[in-house]
Amino acid sequence: MTLEEAKQFAEHWVAAWNSHDVNAVLMHYADDFEMTTPMIQRVLGIESGTLKGKAAVGDYWRAALKKAPDLEFSIIEVTSGVGSAGIYYNAIMGKKAIETFFFNDAGLVYKALATYS
After folding, report:
1. What is the 3-state secondary structure (H, E, C) of 20-68?
2. How confident is the model over 50-58, as a mean pLDDT?
3. Domain 3-116 adopts which CATH fold?
4. Using one digit for the tens of pLDDT, what is the confidence trace for 55-85?
5. 112: exposed, middle or buried (C-beta count within 10 Å: 0-12, 13-18, 19+)?
6. How far apart, in whole angstroms, are the C-alpha atoms of residue 34 and residue 42?
7. CA nearest neighbour of 20 among 63, 75, 77, 56
8. What is the DSSP letter of 103?
9. Cys staple from 78: which of 10, 42, 43, 60, with CB 3.0 to 4.6 Å?
10. What's the sign of the alpha-carbon dihedral 20, 25, 31, 34?
11. H/E stretch holding 115
């Protein structure tokens, strides 16, 4: 993935989140994608911090947005890698986050990993 492609993805991803449109966010993901984040551990009590499938993650994100109606992300830095992109951004609760996305051949995210300050 080129840096320009990663930046375009990041801009669309953040705009979708900031509009609080979970369906627009989910357009970037494959149906069977896997999300790992400490927020899943904290909110859902799932030890692995991982949810699998667009439906399960979408439900989790919708519930999270109800708890954080003022959510707004802003990009600090975007990076690119082999079939991957990273977004360093201002997240929720005054935290900074780094989210790494892995893309399939169709250009959709099949795996994402989030870390927080």
Report:
1. CCHHHHHCCEEEEEEEECHHHHHHHCCCCCEEECHHHHHHHHHHHHHHC
2. 95
3. Nuclear Transport Factor 2; Chain: A, (3.10.450)
4. 999 999 998 888 888 999 999 999 999 999 9
5. buried
6. 17
7. 63
8. E
9. 10
10. negative
11. strand 109-116
